[in-house]
Amino acid sequence: MSNHFADYHRTVVGFHGTTHARALKLVSGEAFKPSKNTDDWLGNGTYFWEYAPKQAWDWARKRYAKTTKIAVVGAMIRLGNCFDLLDPENMQSLTS
Fold first, then answer.
1. The whole model's pTM is what?
2. pLDDT tens digits, one per residue of 44-88
3. How far is the first Cα of the chain from the last one, in angstroms, to the nearest whole number?
4. What's the rounded Cα separation, in Å, for the pair 88 and 91?
5. Cα 92–chain centre separation
6. DSSP 8-state class, residue 29
């Protein structure tokens, strides 16, 4: 499998669904803590929904709403070396 990584020189708006308490810490300047769950889609990291606050809210609702209040935080993310899952060539390499 040959992964095609490209240097994306752009900034995107990402939304992160989380607990209300954690969101307050993030907007106060505390750093994101990468998750290390066995069910993380693409491995350890901090996950964002690009330009999709409703997706982030829905994910947080499914993950946390039964136990605590939820929130969504937004972030400006400067992309660098990325594996673009919207590129058909890259998607092909995942299924080969």
1. 0.78
2. 889 999 999 999 999 999 999 899 999 999 999 998 888 777 778
3. 7
4. 5
5. 22
6. T
Which two three-digit tokens encode residue 64? Answer: 């946390």
Residue 86 corresponds to which tokens in the numbers above?
């919207």
Strand pairing class (81-82; 11-19): unpaired
CB neighbours of 3 closer than 8 A, spacing ≥ 6? Answer: 83, 90, 93
**40 three-class SS:** coil
At 3, is the pLDDT very low, low, confident or very high (cuts 50, 70, 90)?
low
pLDDT of 38 higher than 80: yes
Residue 59 · residue 49 · CB < 8 Å: yes
8 Å CB contact between 89 and 4: yes
